[in-house]
Amino acid sequence: MEAVRGGWLQGRYHGGDGDTVAAMLSFKAVFEINPFEVGASHAKERRAFAARRMMVEDLLDVRELLRRPFLSLSNGEMRRVLLARAILKGPRKLVLDDPLGGLDPERRVKMCAVVEEFGKLGIEIVSSGRTGRERGRPSARRAVCKARPGARVVVEMRHVDVSFGGSSLFRDFSWTIREGERWLLCGPNGSGKTTLLALITGDAPRSYACDISVFGKRRGGEGVTLSAVRAKIGEVSAERQVYLGESPAQQLEEALSRAPRLLLLDEPCYNLAPKEAKKLLRVVSDWLDAHPHVAAVCVAHRQEHVPAGFSLVQTLGDHL
Question: Where are the domains of the chain?
Answer without folding.
Answer: 2-128, 153-315
